[in-house]
What we know:
The chain is an alpha/beta fold and 259 residues long. The protein folds into two domains: 6-199, 2-enoyl-CoA Hydratase, Chain A, domain 1, CATH 3.90.226; 203-249, Lyase 2-enoyl-coa Hydratase, Chain  A, domain 2, CATH 1.10.12. Helix content is 47%, strand content 15%. It has helices at residues 30-45, 75-94, 110-117, 144-152, 154-163, 169-174, 187-199, 203-215, 221-235, 239-249, and strands spanning 6-11, 14-19, 51-56, 99-103, 106-108, 120-124, 128-130, 167-168, 180-182. Strand 3 (51-56), helix 2 and strand 4 form a beta-alpha-beta unit. The relative contact order is 0.11.
Amino acid sequence: MDNQHLLTHIESGVMRLTLNRPEALNAFSPEMITGLMDSIKEAKENQDVKVIVINGAGRAFSSGGDVKTMGKASGVEVYEHIGKLNDLILEIQSLEKPVVAAVHGFAAGAGFNLALACDLIVAADDSKFVLSFAQVGLISDGGGLYFLPKVLGPYRAKELLFSAKPIEAKKAKEWGIVNEIVPLEELEATLEVFANQLANGPTRAIGLMKKIVDEAATMTLEDILKREQITQTLMVTTDDHLEGVQAFVEKRKAKFTGK
Length: 259
């Protein structure tokens, strides 16, 4: 299901989605957003897909919105475009499978926000993150006004949003935006190990933990405790739990199947 602006590859339980407009630093296009949406929906239905990795071709992860089209679209066109982007972000959030952003070069604007919508971010040491909307007189879209304050708190989030200053990978790691930083030349190898570890893990449990953690901000402690109680009651009957216990007893590595 490749299209010109998105390449899709599935191997060993990992779906790799490569943003493929390197000549435009992987700026978003309607085709790219549609391709991402279709692929995430496929991942939801395909039991062989355990983990999704999103990365960018060429010199960057994504520069976000395409500057060449800015100032030319009508209000209706912008509304419809952002609506499709919103649907994509919600699809990623509702997917009960881990989504990893593999960032190198620039992650700017909506590209940065796409990375924030993922569950984990692995970044090359050359990465820079910037919410550049203020430079062109716009507000952040793609969920940035939701995700960034959750990660940084309101004051530091406003600092980045108002100033549009880029931060490098090291600071992004210090601030809790990035999970891991690796040398650019080691990004692919690190990502392969990381994604395979997730794919071979108890993916049903991981997916349910993702769902509850993402909903925790709008739930009370009582709600979370009850959700944990109900979910755990179901989890103790799964093949993965029984295999995990048996592997522990036999002092061997568990062979999880996501069932």
